[in-house]
Amino acid sequence: MASWTHPMEKLNNVTEFIFWGLSQNPEIEEICFVIFLFFYLVILLGNFLIMVTVCQGNLFKTPMYFFLNFLSFVDICYSSVTAPKMIMDLLAKNKSISYAGCMLQVFGVHFFGCTEIFILTVMAYDRYVAICKPLHYMTIMGREKCNKMLLGTWVGGFLHSIIQVALVVQLPFCGPNEIDHYFCDVHPVLKLACADTYIVSAVVTANSGTIALGSFVILLISYSIILVSLWKQSAEGRRKALSTCGSHIAVVIIFFGPCTFMYMRPDTTFSEDKMVAVFYTIVTPMLNPLIYTLRNAEVKNAMRKLWSRKAFWEASGK
């Protein structure tokens, strides 16, 4: 494996990392470029459409849509940390990233990824209260409580990512500098450190694994309680609740499955890792708007009203 080093005064003499990317085959890279550019545009447009619909369609006052709005915002940010660079690299001969850029990617991936996990967990709690304690819903899920929970998701994501970056930054890198991935993540970067990374890797796995698995278990328990309590409701109430919960459960499975596979194991990398990473950095943020709009009558109605109002304004403007 080729190494690229540059003499610097400090121990860390690697100033950039080289990505191997998704493929070394130019023809496959060109096909991937078209596919992932389309996916990224769908992520931006789909999530932006949900944000506009929630804010303009008077849904923002409802706790579920309050959190859905921020989930869409996090999805845009999360995919934007890796997707634009990956898409550009598919057509570039030199797939390089600076050391600082690499550390920023590690921070961004874990900050927005962890925040998304916490928002999904809070949304599960919101559904639990709405279905299991409907009479107390507006009292329990007041705006002040929602704001505090939202702040908690951002603070939790920030603390998690700062720990991850702090563990990586203190390690020396002296070459080789080639990463068998399409973005900087903790485990692929740790493999290049010129030091024993066993303890750091164990702490990273414990940190990420606890958050991913812990949140997943909480979500499973929440939705199990919800599904059990639904049998006591009327057929119409059950159908409406299942429609909403079904979309949440689909998002949770699609997002947490790959995340748990990646971060619940020790410092080992598999050839499948890149495709699994594509799933939670690009595919999930793209599917979220589709899942939430296709299975949610309120969002669809709000969109219809929004666009019919827009069409009316345009017509009257003429």
Automatic annotation (TrEMBL):
InterPro entries, sorted: GPCR_Rhodpsn, GPCR_Rhodpsn_7TM, Olfact_rcpt, Olfactory_Receptors
Q: Does the keyword Transmembrane apply?
A: yes
- The UniProt transmembrane annotation reads 33-54, 66-87, 107-128, 149-173, 211-230, 242-263, 275-294
Q: What keyword terms does UniProt attach to this protein?
A: Cell membrane, G-protein coupled receptor, Membrane, Olfaction, Receptor, Sensory transduction, Transducer, Transmembrane, Transmembrane helix
- G-protein coupled receptors family 1 profile domain: which residues? 46-292
Q: Where in the cell is it found?
A: Cell membrane; Membrane
> Topology relative to the membrane, per the entry?
Multi-pass membrane protein
Q: Please give the superkingdom of this protein's source.
A: Eukaryota
Q: Does the keyword GTP-binding apply?
A: no
PROSITE patterns given for it?
G_PROTEIN_RECEP_F1_1, G_PROTEIN_RECEP_F1_2
Picking any one GO molecular function of the record gives: G protein-coupled receptor activity
One Pfam family linked to the record: 7tm_4
Under the cellular component aspect of Gene Ontology, which terms does the record hold? plasma membrane
Q: Where primarily located?
A: membrane
Q: Sorted alphabetically, which PANTHER family does this protein's record hold?
A: OLFACTORY RECEPTOR
Give the family this protein belongs to, as stated in its UniProt record: Belongs to the G-protein coupled receptor 1 family.
Q: What is this protein called?
A: Olfactory receptor
Species: Chinchilla lanigera (Long-tailed chinchilla)
Gene it is expressed from: OR4S2
